[in-house]
Structure formats: structure tokens, C-alpha cells
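User: What would this chain look like folded?
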Amino acid sequence: MPKPIARSKTKKAVAKRFKVSKRGYVLASRAGRRHLAASKNRKRKRRLKRWGRIDSVEEPRVLRCLPFGRS
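Assistant: Here's the prediction, encoded as C-alpha cells.
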């Protein structure tokens, strides 16, 4: 019998923190919204709600942990 091909598993910690967009960009939620929100203005907090692209240097490392995230 032939040996099964080794597959890489999804790193669940990474899957909870990042998502891959339809175009293939890696998105992450922005930092700075957890606490001390009273000192931040409404516009800043609203912008922190959105997902943002991560740096292109970090993308290959995240995508290696998400083998099924790419389409």
C-alpha cells in the first residue's frame, strides 16, 4: 500500500486571529480597542472595529499556518 501524503494541519490559534480575504490578503483585527476606551474618540474606536491588512512580510508566515485558507 502507498504511504499517505503528509498534510499540514491548521494552527487553530492563528485561525482565530486572522482571516484570508477573497483576493488573498491576510486580515487581522486592529489592536487598541480592549480597554482604556474612554480616552479614545469615537472616530478612532470606530476605525479600530474594522479588520486591517497585515504587513506583506508577515503574510507568508500566517498563510503557512492556514493551509486551507487559500483559495
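The helical segments are 12-17, 42-49, 59-65. If you want, I can go into more detail on any region.
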